[in-house]
Specification:
By secondary structure, this protein is α+β, with helices and mostly antiparallel strands. Helix content is 53%, strand content 13%. The strands form 2 sheets. The protein has a 6-stranded mixed beta sheet, sandwiched between helices. Strand 2 and strand 3 form a beta hairpin.
């Protein structure tokens, strides 16, 4: 079964090789070829020019008719294909001029001259249309290749998940959408909290992962990371984004989520890895646990524009550190209470969390069983 490992640039399931789409309209390889100048247009322009030429030849001096009308194909060619094609059209025009001069000197009849002119223009414009078509096809091929390269630049080659650069591309749009949704909902703060309109950030890190590399080699560590990517895809929804954050850290961005359910998702991830047996080659089973930190965006339900997603991500990183410090194989989350006003959001939110916790403006949630409250420091 194929499913998305990311937002609905975007889809993947196989931990090694991944097919991905583009939901955020990342500007990848947009077409830059010349404007289309089809054969039908070339024929129409040629016919108009031939008829006009025949008319002018019977009413004006030959030099005026040729000099004035020959400027038109050169200008059109330069417009359609650039300077090289303009030069080519100018060359064809020069040949036409020479033939016309010989014809006038030899008293060729006007019908023969017009037939020559029409054939020359037909050939010139048909060739021009073919060149434009070929250029556009080449441009499309280059565009597709460029798109693939840019997608690869946003993908982790080992696991097939998105990398950190992808978050910088997609998150501004996601954050803005979440803020708009909160503002547009005609509901009380308590009702909005109960709706699935939040972004939940969960940062996961394997416990004692260095021992895997030290005891079994880096190939075993790579095998664990690939299997971890597959597990995360199974434990998250298709609308969620899974990112390899770096090393043995993974970031999950749960979209259309409810902050009240964040502890359930964190426990699902923690338990899912604790129960899984990794295979690292030679039939060697391996058990690993993970620690998780999480927080929500928008930070404040009643003031969704207060704070930014980067501040929330800093809180998540600190929560992960606390979970590891408190014994690992655990999760820790932080969130704002109803007492937290928009005017209370400091510039360095992470540094001010101890004060905000003491004042009851923020609260910690954890799976760690302790008699005393967790220490943010």
């Amino acid at each position: 079964m194929t499913r998305q490992c990311c937002a609905p640039l975007s889809g993947c399931h196989n931990p090694g090789a991944v097919a991905q789409d583009n939901p955020y309209d990342i500007p990848v390889g947009r077409e830059t070829g010349p404007p289309r100048f089809p054969v039908a247009t070339a024929l129409l322009v040629s016919a108009v020019l031939v008829l006009a030429l025949g008319y002018l030849e019977t009413n004006t001096p030959t030099e005026l008719s040729f000099g004035g009308l020959y400027f038109v194909p050169v200008a059109l060619a330069a417009w359609a294909g650039g300077l090289p094609w303009g030069i080519a059209a100018a060359f064809g025009t020069a040949v036409d001029w020479v033939v016309a001069s010989i014809a006038n000197a030899g008293n060729w009849d006007h019908l023969g001259l017009r037939l020559w002119t029409g054939a020359n223009h037909f050939a010139s414009y048909s060739f021009l249309a073919w060149l434009v078509h070929r250029s556009r096809r080449t441009s499309q091929q280059l565009s597709a290749a460029n798109a693939q390269l840019q997608i690869q630049s946003l993908t982790d080659p080992l696991t097939g998940l998105w990398n950190r650069r992808y978050l910088d591309v997609c998150m501004p749009a996601d954050a803005a959408s979440s803020v708009r949704t909160h503002r547009d909902r005609r509901a009380t703060d308590r009702q909005r909290i109960a709706q699935n309109i939040d972004l939940v950030f969960l940062l996961l890190d394997f416990d004692h992962f260095k021992e895997v590399n030290d005891r079994h080699g880096h190939h075993a560590g790579d095998a664990v990371l690939k299997q971890a990517a597959a597990i995360l895809r199974e434990l998250t929804r298709a609308s969620d984004t899974v990112i390899r954050w770096g090393g043995e850290e993974f970031l999950v961005v749960a979209r259309n989520a409810n902050r009240r359910d964040a502890t359930l998702l964190a426990e699902r991830l923690r338990e899912g890895f604790a129960r899984y047996t990794f295979e690292v080659g030679a039939g060697v089973p391996l058990k690993l646990t993970c620690s998780i930190g999480f927080a929500f965006y928008p930070l404040l339900v009643d003031a969704p524009g207060a704070g930014d997603w980067e501040q929330v991500l800093s809180l998540v990183d600190r929560c992960l550190y606390i979970a590891k410090r408190e014994g690992r194989n655990a999760w820790v989350g932080v969130g704002a209470t109803e007492r937290f006003a928009a005017s209370d959001v400091p510039h360095d939110l992470t540094a001010e969390v101890p004060r905000l916790l003491a004042e009851g403006r923020m609260t910690l949630q954890t799976s760690v069983q302790r008699e005393r409250p967790l220490d943010w420091e």
